[in-house]
Amino acid sequence: METFSKRWLSPNELEAEYGFSKSAQAKMRMSVSKCKIPFCKINSKYIRYDRAEIDQWIEKHKIVGSEL
């Protein structure tokens, strides 16, 4: 059993752990708004997400119920 969390997540791993579909990830990567998801592109081919940056990004962009 794995007792640590991987730092870098693939799009499939991000989908499994956070629930963002791969199509939603692509839209958020291409977004021109302030809600652009943080990612890293390796060799112009592989997309990876830093778990800590994703957690911070989610925290920064959350909407509290009274703000709706």
UniProtKB/TrEMBL annotation:
Highest taxon in the source lineage: Bacteria
Protein name: Helix-turn-helix domain-containing protein
Organism expressing this protein natively: Sulfurospirillum diekertiae
Taxonomic lineage: Bacteria, Pseudomonadati, Campylobacterota, Epsilonproteobacteria, Campylobacterales
